[in-house]
Amino acid sequence: MAESQELSTLRGHIFACTKSSERECLERMVFGTNKIYAEKINKVKAGDKLFLINVDSDKLYGPFAAATDGGFNLVPDAWKGKYPYQVKVENHDEEIKAIENAKKVLSKMAISWKESLDERKTKSLLSYLGAPLAFDWGPLAAERIRLKTNDKRDIEEEKPRLEATTHWDYPKQSYGKTPKGSNKYAGVTPAFIIYNLVQRYTEPGDLVLDPMAGSGTTLDVCKEEGRKCIVYDVVPTRPEIIQNDARKIPLPDKSVDLIFIDSPYGDNIRYNEHPANIGHISAESEELYDELEKVMSECHRVLKPGKVLGWLIGDQWVKKKFTPVGFKVHERLSKHFDTVDLICVVRRSQSSNTGIWYNRAIRFNFYLRGFKYLFIMRKPQDEASTQKKRKVAWKYYERVKKRQSE
Ligand SMILES: C[S@@+](CC[C@H](N)C(=O)[O-])C[C@H]1O[C@@H](n2cnc3c(N)ncnc32)[C@H](O)[C@@H]1O
User: Fold this and answer.
1) Residues whose beta carbon lies within 6 Å of some atom of ligand 1
2) Which site from 181, 222, 286, 303 is most exposed, i.e. has the minimal number of CB atoms within 10 Å?
3) Is residue 72 exposed (0-12), middle (13-18) or buried (19+ Cβ within 10 Å)?
């Protein structure tokens, strides 16, 4: 009985190291990772089986056991703070063995070192470590077939990818089993955008603000990712959304860790009839940018120095007139924030995504809006920091320097 209980809770996790970080892992008996795999650390519980893969030498070491639950900065000076998501490790006097050509062996076992291992995978790895030559590969062949048929379900449960480029393109508004916002709400934000910002720029427990929350996509993403979240809108669509005009945010100075806004960008969508709805103002009028700048100024006030604001906006083409709403909004944002980067988000689920609109665009020689801008802006640590000289080692800059001194 005791044994079957123990087996049913058997879980494993593989941590990665490199040539330069392996020694510190083994000497300090702590495994760590950076933000990219931070989610994995929350799943580690004291007593879980752990393995260490050196991605340079392609060797996997084990078994170890987690001496603690996964946590943040358990050994603050380990790897000079580079891998702060950590777990302390012990090995219960078991002999630590090594698997050569580890990536190939893991792939044959259908194990990804980036994911936590269930009981079956943990047992497989333990048994291979114990006696590689006697390992029975038979059951794993059946497992690979099962995995293929379950592909669709796995994809549905998957979290969005963390984006590495400035071009983001997702076919769906939401991800996972629970809805994020409502895709019946005109102008709903694709949830993966908020997921990416939350993962990149906040830690669990941080406070996220969305002053124009619409159907509450930001709230739902934050709930799932363990972030606190405050959401406002002039017309709340859910009880958790507080009624408020974004031009006056009822929060103290420097109190928020991340702000996300998907603001109206003209009067193209009729969100509601509230007189304070900025979505009643035309993108062709300077008034829109003046009102949005009041929101920006409030965001700047409540955001902690060094923290990030993500602002999603699109351009407008109406009745033969193009308005570069994105450029205009960025110009206003730049008065208050430094630009971290500019992302091109592909627009997919819009009403003009139809054959009729395609034909019109070709016949009357105009373009349909194919993307939105996501401006990632940072509130400077100190307002003078943007003026500080940057050290740039590119040849281009050296050539310019030479020419100047000639
Ligand atoms: C593009 S929608 C936001 C969509 C939302 N992110 C979602 O996923 O459902 C813009 C929202 O801004 C709100 N809004 C317009 N003017 C506002 C103001 N002055 N203060 C607060 N919210 C405002 C509108 O009511 C609308 O819900």
Assistant:
1) 181, 185, 187-189, 211-215, 217, 232-235, 245-247, 262-264, 271-272, 276-279
2) 286
3) middle
